[in-house]
Amino acid sequence: MIPLKMKALLQKVLPDKMWQNRLIKDGPLRFMEFGPLDVDRLQRLGIRVDRLGPRLVVCMWDEDSPLEIGGFLVVDNLAMGQPAMGGTRMLPDVTPDIIHNLARGMTLKNAAAALPFGGGKSGIVRPEDLTPADRPAVITGFGRLLKRYRKIYIPGPDVGTNDADMKRFAIENGLNNAVSKPADMGGNRIDELGGAANGVVVAFKTLVKQLPRLKNLPQFRHLTLPSLKDQTILIQGFGAVGAHVARIFHEYDPHTPPVIKGISDAHGFLMNENGLPWQQLFDLWKQFGEVTRRYFHDTILHGTQNTDPRTIYSSCADNLLRESGFCLIPASPVSNYLDVDASSNPSMTVDRMGHWQMIVEGANTYSPDPAKKAARRHMERHVYRDKGVLIAKDFLVNSGGVIYAAHERMIPTPDDLLIPKDILGHSKKIDAWLHKNQEAFAQLAEIRRKAAVEKLETVIRNNMEELIDGLCKDADSLPCDVAETISIRRIASMEKTRTAKDVMEDAPTIGVDRQIADAARLLVKSRVSIVNVVSETGKLIGIVTNWDITRAMASHLPMDAPLTRVMTTDVIATGPDTPILDCVRMLENHEISAMPIVKKDRVAGIVSGDILAKKTLFRLLQTMD
After folding, report:
1. 3-state DSSP call for residue 568?
2. Under a CB-based contact definition with an 8 Å cutoff, are residues 544 and 613 in contact?
3. How many CA atoms, within 13 angstroms, populate the side-chain half-sphere of residue 261?
4. Residues 6+ apart with CB under 8 A from 104
5. Residue 448: count of CB within 10 angstroms of its CB
6. Distances (CA, A) of 188 to 192, 404, 419, 435, 451
7. CA 411-577-81 angle, 5° bins
8. Which of 134, 196, 423, 597 is the most buried (most CB within 10 A)?
9. Can you list the pairs that 35-39 forms with residues at least 24 positions away whose Cβ atoms lie under 8 Å?
10. How far apart are the two ends of the chain, measured CA to CA in Å?
11. Where are the alpha helices (DSSP H) in 347-496?
């Protein structure tokens, strides 16, 4: 059944007629799809169409399941490549606008990481009373819903899901249709390896070296770097990212790592000026998922071992951000960790924040919403420009996870290791097949891991250097503006290389000896604005448009009259290699809505204003041309 919260939301914002017109039925599965031309409909869902996307928004559920199975998919942008890649979040309060925000972050993140994938995200509306016994069925059911979109979207783990869930998706849809799978599937398992955390650590180390370059800016003129042993770290959110950050810091440099001074999770925060026992806390997190309250009760209050009396615990997790340190690492699923305005319910307001020199964002904080972007810029003016705190934006920093995941596609699974089609969906048979090939999958997983680590270190180091370059070049710029420019520049560069053949759709053709009525029927059936008229040898000799049919009827031409009476012979056409922006200009200059794509006098496809609006970012190219 459709999740109750999802049903209540959709019934509130979508009129009954839209449910009737947009509902797609595939057995028990239900889908409602919206594209970039559905501006009003998407606005009802809280999504604003802009020059980057979204490309596709889907509301989907299983009608016949006794469990609540459903959620949302947003494919934001495919300029960097197809399919889009991004995690599947599972929380009770998942909504289309939240998934769109995350999908846009993936668009910018994949571009910042120079990955050949678009940006997307999906979200499962988790039932409030979901039991551990029912959870696998909900994951599997959502995987069946995603199967329809496997050519344009590849899921990975996100808040509420994990690597084991990606295995369930792969069991349903095939090894190439999920990423961050376990090692027994050749996966780069983000949760286990801490891919996103690795990116945060690389960003931190690069920025420490780059910080002195900012001394030319007035807010950094008194900047002094502490010694290695005095570089203290506060981690907001000791979870899948934050816990691995602590581990990787010590693996990178076990002799002089930075001091993990404070951590927080949903139950409170721990502080110790001399450093917390990161290994003990990491082990607690792996075992129980929660750390601060358990450590306080089991170790500080009732522990038998000697503990540092300077370790303090508070049940108010947000108060960690009132403490001072060299670097704050936001790594909790809270995008609004700082704000000037207390009414937005941030973790902390800037007037009460501690003293830091850097913020390296491990959490996803980006939102395309204009009001939220304005609030972010307001915050950065206070924190970066007035207080002299460098901020490294999330999608430049925490792309380590998607880099790890992407290598499961960039280094493809060999054909002999693809799950046989006849056992897809049968977990026991697949487990036996995986066991039989375990050695080959282990070797594949290691090859992918090594390639991902190399790519991660290069990309994120370059991103941090570009960030500092941009801030140094323009003293009035803000970190969020420079970061977005870095990603959008890469997206526009990729979009410029796309041509008509990348976006054209199939074009209906009709013989020159046919009648007007035949062309009219073909226009209705094909749902396009032009039909291409070809000779006996298949050569394009004319076109018939909706307007031609309308004019024929107005002139009282009989519908059995030959096409030659109405067709246009002076055809505006172009070739498959014509750049997208040139296609746009041709349509505008000739004041036509569509034109054939022709190769060697043969019709190869069609482009139209609608096709270009749905499949390209021509508005972005026009602003950057």
Report:
1. strand
2. no
3. 20
4. 52, 53, 54, 76, 77, 119, 366, 367, 368
5. 23
6. 8, 6, 18, 18, 10
7. 30
8. 196
9. 35/614, 36/613, 36/614, 37/610, 37/613, 37/614
10. 48
11. 370-380, 394-397, 400-410, 427-436, 438-473, 479-496
Would you state the structure tokens that stand for residue 89, as one six-digit string?
């979040």
C-alpha dihedral (399, 199, 380, 243), degrees to nearest 10: 110
- Burial class from Cβ neighbours inside 10 Å (0-12, 13-18, 19+) for residue 222 reads exposed
Distances (CA, A) of 461 to 15, 204, 245, 361, 439: 49, 9, 17, 15, 34
**pLDDT number for residue 422:** 87
Chain-centre distance for alpha carbon 279? 32
Look at residues 300, 223, 230 and name the one whose alpha carbon lies nearest to residue 258: 230
| Averages of pLDDT over each 10 residues, the chain, 625 residues | 93 88 94 93 93 94 96 94 93 95 92 92 94 94 96 92 91 89 82 86 95 93 86 94 93 83 95 92 92 88 69 93 96 90 94 96 90 93 96 92 89 88 86 89 90 92 95 94 92 87 89 89 84 90 87 87 88 92 90 90 89 80 68
Q: Please report the sign of the dihedral spanned by the C-alpha atoms of residue 234, residue 238, residue 244, residue 250.
A: positive
Report helix, strand and coil shares of the chain as percent, to nearest 5: 50, 20, 35
| Residues in the chain, total | 625
Give the containing element (helix H, strand E) for 196. helix 195-210
Q: Give the helix/strand (H/E) hosting 108.
A: helix 96-112
d(C-alpha 430, C-alpha 420), whole Å: 9
Integer Cα distance of 560 and 569 in angstroms: 20
Residue pair 153/84 in contact by the 8 Å Cβ criterion: yes
Q: How many CB atoms lie within 10 A of CB 226?
A: 13
Strands ordered across the beta sheet of 29-34: 23-26, 29-34, 56-62, 70-77, 118-125, 84-91, 153-157
How many whole angstroms separate alpha carbon 466 and alpha carbon 478? 13
Q: Is residue 50 classed as helix, strand or coil in its secondary structure?
A: coil
Report whether 480 contacts 393 (CB < 8 A). yes
For tokens 């794509």, the residue is 597
Q: What is the pLDDT of residue 303?
A: 66
What six digits make up the tokens of 542? 């004319």
- Assess contact for 242 and 332: CB atoms under 8 A: yes
> How far is 409 from 215, CA to CA, in rounded Å?
42
Environment class of residue 387 by beta-carbon count within 10 Å: exposed (0-12), middle (13-18) or buried (19+)?
middle
Can you point out the beta strands (E) in 84-128?
84-91, 118-125
| Residue of 47, 111, 123 whose CA lies nearest to 84 | 111
Whole-angstrom Cα distance, residue 443 to residue 449?
A: 10
